[in-house]
């Protein structure tokens, strides 16, 4: 099975990541792929040396989020990574995704974060494990890394272990008992001492001062960590010293300048301000005036790590000469056959759908559907904030209903931009009279007069529903202020149910850590009959298909198979029979208990051989009490993201919000409505 994309991720600091990335890119291109490069996590938003070295001249470097963003706002940062990766992948058939290099504030949990990102991007990992310490230690590192990756739902294709000239490892010893392929890839090694340009590039450092070209100055002596007082530091400085000091110790930089200018002490060859803290203002200006020929560098990498990298000659390679690039490609292709990676040798599931993945797919599908949604509660703050986000991201076209002056004024107070939305006041709209006439015609058998119809359609929920009926909008979302009945009643009166369906019902998309389940009915029908349960299941299957979920339906009860009896069990048995008659092609089983429906080991004991038990994707509850309480229990106790309720069974989509809905809930529900409007049901 040929690999189309891979996440090349070191488990610890790796000075040879560029070489392996060059080899991986060449390998994918040899398979005919159009390859791009993406880095989910960077230390500094101002630039990334590896991305710069690997990106094509026609493509700007692409990254997802900074380490600080992931630490401070992890949910937003992960969503940003997913969205930016999807954008970068457009026009390409494969990507080499680069793991981060333990040079930032994320370092203590950096590998764990990379595995979580890989799972959410749905890109399998090729892990790079350090070679030092011998085969036994390497195997231990591999085992720990695989455990972390699989616990975080990532797939792993294989392991790369760098192979140097010193103490080469034996592949058979390293790969013993490893569940994925292990590859020893020879490093490309240079012999020359690094110059300051290589140091700066390897550390992702910025040159703040010092007029000479960094490439003109090399160093061979060990670096000096300036963590002592100036009294003890200054006598140790000579013209070949690279002094490393913490960026929050401005007195070190000032002392080096003043002491060198006095003539009593030497200037260093260069100085490096290290760590995540800002260097005090004025230090660089002083350095330029007093020591104009001495380079002053600034890196986010910590002092101890900078010292270790320089002393061990382990700086990450930031660029490769053409000969070294060719050697890197040869070494990688000799050790790793990308066309044979994947398949049975991969560990981790390939069917994982995380909540972030599902939300992103919702928004992408809604954007592609390009539908027009009406929001009747246009004066409400959450609706205005959601409208701003929907318009900003181009998810759909919008109409907001309400007093136009009130809507505009409140939007200005909130600082949200709704200029792209159509604003309509139902009481003053030119559509009022034709809507009233149409409603009166539809409801004349109920004795509704034209005047009554006019009063009715002045209501925002009725006006919005009439817009959907008359195809002036593709769907409607309401309920952040109004009740469920106020949202659904107009739709039942004029939009009505689809042919073959007599009951409007609802589902929730329950986004668990690794999958999305469909729960129905959890919001509308208190005590459905067997016929209604069968219809609810049929509608739920159609909804699941609209959102890329393969329907496997479990009709739930307190009994599995023939283990119990009673009126409630018999009702589920009858509903299952009716559903099989209505849609014989659908995988369905019942009665099933919840554990037998979703857990393979329980299903094997309770109902072996079932096409649904243990792998159900749609769970139909026997009544509203059970469904509503179960979805809330899973949401609150299991930490699941619950998206819904999603109404189903109507001729055109109308969806109801919880009155406690968050802005993100409103955005998701509008996206769902747009997808429903843009997808033909079978």
UniProtKB/TrEMBL annotation:
It is an enzyme of class 2 (transferase). Pathway: Metabolic intermediate biosynthesis; acetyl-CoA biosynthesis; acetyl-CoA from acetate: step 2/2. It catalyses: acetyl-CoA + phosphate = acetyl phosphate + CoA. The keyword Cell division does not apply. The keyword Acyltransferase applies. Keywords: Acyltransferase, Transferase. It comes from the Bacteria. Residues 357-674 form the Phosphate acetyl/butaryl transferase domain. GO terms for molecular function: phosphate acetyltransferase activity. InterPro entries: P_AcTrfase, P_AcTrfase_dom1, P_AcTrfase_dom2, Phos_Acetyltrans/Butyryltrans, PTA_PTB. Its EC number is 2.3.1.8. Involved in acetate metabolism. This is Phosphate acetyltransferase. The lineage of its organism: Bacteria, Bacillati, Actinomycetota, Actinomycetes, Propionibacteriales.
């Amino acid at each position: 099975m040929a690999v189309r994309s891979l996440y090349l991720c070191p488990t610890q600091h790796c000075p040879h990541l560029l070489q392996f990335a060059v080899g991986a890119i060449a390998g994918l291109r040899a398979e005919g792929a159009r390859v791009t490069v993406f880095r989910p996590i960077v230390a500094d938003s101002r630039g990334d040396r590896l991305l710069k070295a690997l990106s094509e001249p026609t493509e700007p470097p692409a990254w997802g989020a900074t380490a600080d963003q992931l630490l401070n706002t992890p949910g937003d940062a992960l969503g940003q990574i997913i969205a930016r990766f999807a954008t970068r992948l457009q026009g390409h058939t494969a990507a080499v995704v680069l793991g981060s290099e333990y040079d930032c504030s994320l370092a203590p949990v950096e590998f764990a974060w990379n595995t979580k990102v890989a799972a959410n991007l749905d890109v399998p990992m090729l892990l790079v494990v350090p070679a030092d310490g011998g085969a036994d230690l390497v195997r231990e590192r591999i085992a720990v890394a695989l455990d972390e990756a699989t616990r975080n739902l990532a797939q792993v294709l294989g392991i790369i272990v760098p192979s140097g000239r010193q103490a080469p490892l034996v592949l058979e010893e390293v790969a013993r008992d490893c569940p994925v392929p292990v590859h020893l890839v020879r490093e490309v090694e240079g012999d020359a001492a690094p110059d300051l340009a290589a140091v700066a590039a390897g550390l992702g450092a910025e040159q703040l001062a010092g007029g000479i070209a960094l490439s003109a100055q090399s160093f061979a002596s060990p670096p000096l960590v300036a963590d002592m007082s100036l009294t003890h530091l200054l006598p140790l400085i000579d013209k070949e010293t690279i002094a490393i000091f913490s960026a929050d110790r401005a007195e070190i930089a000032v002392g080096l300048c003043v002491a060198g200018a006095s003539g009593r002490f030497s200037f260093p060859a260069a100085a490096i301000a290290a760590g995540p803290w800002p260097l005090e203002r004025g230090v660089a200006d002083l350095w330029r005036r007093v020591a104009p020929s001495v380079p002053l560098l600034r890196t986010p990498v910590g002092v101890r790590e900078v010292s270790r990298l320089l002393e061990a000659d382990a700086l990450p390679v930031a660029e490769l000469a053409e000969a070294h690039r060719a050697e890197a490609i040869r070494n990688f292709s000799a050790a790793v056959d990308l066309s044979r990676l994947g398949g049975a040798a991969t560990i981790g599931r390939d069917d994982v759908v995380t909540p972030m993945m599902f939300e992103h797919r919702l928004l992408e599908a809604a954007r592609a559907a390009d539908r027009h949604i009406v929001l009747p509660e246009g004066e409400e703050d959450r609706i205005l904030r959601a409208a701003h986000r929907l318009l900003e991201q181009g998810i759909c076209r919008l109409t907001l209903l309400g007093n136009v002056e009130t809507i505009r004024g409140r939007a200005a107070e909130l600082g949200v931009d709704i200029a792209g939305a159509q604003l309509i006041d139902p009481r003053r709209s030119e559509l009022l009279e034709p809507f009233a006439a149409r409603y009166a015609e539809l409801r004349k058998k109920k004795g509704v007069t034209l005047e009554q119809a006019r009063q009715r359609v002045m209501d925002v929920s009725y006006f919005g529903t009439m817009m959907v009926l008359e195809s002036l909008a593709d769907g409607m979302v309401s309920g952040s202020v109004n009740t469920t009945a106020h949202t659904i009643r107009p739709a039942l009166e004029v939009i009505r149910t689809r042919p073959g369906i007599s009951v409007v019902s609802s589902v929730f998309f329950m986004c668990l850590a690794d999958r999305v389940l469909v729960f129905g009915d959890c919001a509308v029908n208190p005590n459905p009959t067997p016929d209604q349960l069968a219809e609810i299941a049929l509608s739920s299957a159609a909804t699941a298909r609209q959102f890329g979920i393969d329907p496997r339906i479990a009709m739930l009860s307190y009994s599995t198979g023939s283990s119990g009896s009673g009126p409630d069990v018999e009702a589920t048995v009858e509903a299952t029979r009716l559903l099989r008659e209505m849609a014989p092609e659908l995988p369905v089983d019942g009665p099933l208990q919840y554990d037998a429906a979703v857990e393979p080991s329980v299903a094997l004991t309770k109902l072996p051989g079932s096409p649904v038990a243990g792998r159900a994707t749609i769970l139909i509850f026997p009544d509203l009490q059970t469904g509503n309480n179960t979805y809330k229990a899973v949401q609150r106790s299991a930490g699941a993201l619950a998206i819904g309720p999603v109404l189903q069974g109507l001729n055109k989509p109308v969806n109801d919000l919880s009155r406690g809905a968050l802005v993100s809930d409103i955005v998701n529900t509008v996206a769902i409505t747009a997808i429903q409007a843009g997808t033909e049901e079978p």
